[in-house]
Description:
This protein is an all-alpha fold. The chain has helices at about 15-40, 45-55, 55-65, 75-85, 95-105, 115-125, 130-140, 140-155, 160-170, 180-200.
Amino acid sequence: MTDTETGAPATAPPGRRERKKAATRQAIADAALRLFLERGYDDVGIREIADAADVSTTTLFKHFPVKEALVFDEDAVHLERLLAAVRERAPGQSVPAALCAHALAHRMADKDGDPGFTAFFDLVNSTPALRDYVQNMWLRHTAALASAIAEADGLPEDDPACTALAHFALEAPRASRGQADPRAAVVRAFELLERGWGDVSGRA
Length: 204
């Protein structure tokens, strides 16, 4: 079967089994986040989360192999957004500027925005295990981001400068910890990357 407009193979809608698995996974994640926000991450046990989601602990671990993963259940979505920030950036916008905008939009709490969004970031920032997990989660995407950067600026895929920019761009939000103005700290870190990348890409 193909898409009638593009001629590309059509994506079949998920079957009943896949929909049920997705619904179970979402129910577990929702129950975990609700309990974590109510009582704190360290004070909630796996069995409590399973009971709240009406599943067994075995089922819970099939979907989330470690407790920290219960808070970050959209890793693939995060990667898609990260790569799109580079590939779909505005004309004339540099790669570091695009990655800075992505970091501010998706990795920093907006105190004037959605209170649920802010509460989530407060939970993560106040829990060492979650802070370490989310940072390692982002760093797993270094290679994919480096490849997208190389493609965007016409550099060899194995150019170490692309890997360095990817790594430091993903590490930059860590610079905001303990700062009076976390968002300003992230912007300052990316300003440094911007200056260095201008020399590498020939766009200084």
